[in-house]
Specification:
Helices cover 30% and strands 23% of the residues. It is α/β, with parallel strands linked by helices. Among the domains are: 36-192, ANL, N-terminal domain (Rossmann fold, 3-Layer(aba) Sandwich), CATH 3.40.50.12780; 429-532, 2-Layer Sandwich (GMP Synthetase, Chain A, domain 3), CATH 3.30.300.30. The strands form five sheets. The protein has a nine-stranded mixed beta sheet, with helices on both faces. Helix 1 runs antiparallel to helix 2 (37-53), helix 2 (37-53) packs across helix 3 (70-82) and helix 10 (252-262) crosses helix 11. Bound molecules: adenosine monophosphate. Adenosine monophosphate binds next to strand 14, strand 19 and strand 20.
Length: 538
């Protein structure tokens, strides 16, 4: 027997009209452009009419290559309202991966800001499916020449008359396409449905999650091209929070200006961004007053960073875990009133508990469940309403028959689903048959006052299989050396975790989403060790 309730599609296109009705006066700020949810909704309707005039139909794929601006946000909502699919290409990719992802997505229409155009012109010959180009600028900023087909100005599209939108698509229809960063092999496409975007937003913004409300001012730091900007384009208008879009420049001084100038209460982003801001705050001896909460994910936030924000600035930090395949994300580290202090501390150093709608389990090499006892390490798998079932244009399912998706992470779970990731499986250091957590070594290292960045990798060792080696970037002016660092580290870790060598480097190789490129770091470390005088094995 079916229920007798109304059956409205959980379509993303319903979000902005709601914000227009309920929070039409609330501001959306993007550089010098100041809009409201009311004016934004009108622009989105005109953009949708312009897209229809360009021939965009439900199910069509269009690609956008841009930073976080109001135009990019408008595209998010206009394509969703039309039932078209927005491929959010990543401007931090190299030319080969960019050409590959745009080609694989199969879009006929490319939206690019002027930075995106600069990336696409050199690969224009390889973008053979692109038949039309819309540059995210006003007519006055249009370049005199362009190597991409039929360029028009975005603002010209908005001259279309505000037209009624088509009926919402089926909630299971595709809304956005985002590719994995492909550190090994070709990038893979995660094709998010409307339903996945809506359910993950609703679940993650609840009080024991990001805890967003109409009194918040949200600074959208996570790029809209990565995991739908961690849901900010949907969550902020759903609750009526003021939204600040920072564009390309995420320099600490600019972030601070936006935070103070716009009254930002909440932001999200990868730990490296917030480490940069913290260093800037310390250098200027500036204390944050209005910022209440920072969500950190994409990599593990070092406890020293979490502590500094909480203790020095009174900012609540919420570590969160997700991956491209899980839409916005699946777990958050929010201590509950019932958590004893020691457990709350441990929780903050891990990846949190699943939110409603997501489930984790841990398995061994043979796929047998590992006990969730908080200590047994296994391969973490995830499933849930917004977890990928298969990759775009791939034949094979991405999961096993029961819907479990391998995350590529290894770590522990406990009886309440509390997850602690110790490594990416391919980055794990196994010494004498035992795991050494590179994340934990890095987190400890970064707490040293002279260390700006730290990366730990495993190097082959005749006796132990592998031994950890640490690559450190010193803070400006610091003179720390290897023996002094090891003497400082030794009392904090088991003896056999102590890095075999410490190397100092100018910078660490990073992925487009600021994670350390461990494969490249391993190659560099191997080379540096080879160049250095040979040492006696232990
Ligand atoms: P991506 O698909 O680029 O978003 O990368 C997903 C991966 O980032 C995950 O599988 C984890 O390895 C890592 N990651 C994301 N969030 C966290 C976190 N809070 N702590 C540790 N690793 C994380």
């Amino acid at each position: 027997m079916l229920g007798l309730m109304q059956d409205h599609s959980l379509a993303v296109g319903s979000v902005l009209p709601f914000a227009e009705r309920q929070f039409g006066h609330v501001e959306v700020v993007s550089g010098a452009t100041r809009l409201t949810y009311g004016s934004l909704a009108g622009r989105v309707r005109r953009l949708a009419a312009g897209l229809v005039a360009l021939g965009v139909r439900p199910g069509d794929m269009v690609t956008t290559l841009a930073w976080n601006t109001h135009r990019q946000l408008e595209l998010f909502h206009a394509t969703a309202a039309l039932g078209a699919v927005l491929h959010t290409a990543n401007p931090r990719l190299g030319p080969d991966q960019l050409a590959y992802t745009i080609g694989h997505a199969g879009s006929g229409l490319l939206f690019a800001d002027l930075d995106g155009l600069a990336l696409c012109e050199p690969i224009a010959d390889r973008l053979t499916r692109i038949k039309g180009t819309v540059l995210l600028c006003d007519p006055a900023a249009m370049p005199a020449a362009c190597r991409l087909p039929d360029p028009i100005s975005y603002d010209a599209l908005l001259e279309a008359a505000d037209a009624p939108l088509p009926p919402p698509p089926d909630e299971r229809a595709a809304a956005y396409l985002c590719y994995t960063s492909g550190t090994t092999g070709l990038p893979k496409g995660a094709l998010y449905s409307h339903r996945a975007c809506m359910l993950s937003s609703l679940s993650l913004m609840q009080p024991n999650g990001w805890n967003l409300g109409a009194d918040d001012v949200v600074l959208a730091v996570p790029p809209l091209f990565h995991c739908v900007g961690w849901g900010v384009p949907f969550m902020a208008p759903m609750v009526g929070a003021k939204l600040v879009l920072p564009g390309r420049d995420l320099d600490p001084a600019r972030l601070l200006d936006l935070i103070e100038g716009e009254g930002v209460t909440m932001s999200l982003g990868v730990p490296t961004i917030w480490q940069g801001l913290l260093d800037h705050l310390s250098a200027r001896n500036h204390r944050l007053t209005g910022l209440k909460c920072l969500g950190m994910g994409g990599s593990a936030p070092p406890p020293a960073l979490v502590d500094a924000y909480q203790k020095q600035h009174g900012v609540r930090v919420i570590p969160a875990w997700g991956m491209t395949e899980t839409t916005i994300g699946c777990s958050l580290a929010v201590p509950l009133a019932s958590d004893l202090p020691a457990r709350a501390r441990a929780l903050m150093a891990g990846q949190g508990r699943p939110v409603f709608g997501a489930e984790f389990r841990s398995v061994d090499e043979a796929g047998r469940p590992v006990p969730p006892d908080g200590t047994s390490i296994g391969h973490i798998q995830v499933r849930g309403h917004w977890v990928a079932a298969r990759y775009f244009r791939a034949g094979e399912p991405a999961t096993d028959a029961d819907g479990w998706l391998p995350t590529g992470d290894i770590g522990t779970l406990d009886g309440q689903g509390f997850m602690r990731i110790t490594d990416r499986a391919k980055d794990a250091i196994k010494s004498g048959g035992e795991w050494i957590s590179s994340i934990e070594l890095e987190n400890l290292a970064i707490a040293h006052p002279d260390v700006a960045e730290a990366g730990a990798v495993g190097m082959p060792h005749a006796k132990w299989g592998e031994r950890p080696v640490m690559a450190l970037v010193r803070c400006p002016g610091a003179t720390l050396d290897g023996p002094a660092f090891l003497a400082w580290l030794a009392p904090q870790i088991p003896k056999w975790w102590l890095p075999e060598s410490v190397l100092f480097v100018d910078s660490l190789p990073r992925t487009p989403t600021a994670k350390i490129r461990k494969a490249e770091l391993r190659d560099r470390v191997r080379q540096l060790l080879k160049d250095a005088a040979p040492r006696e094995p232990r």
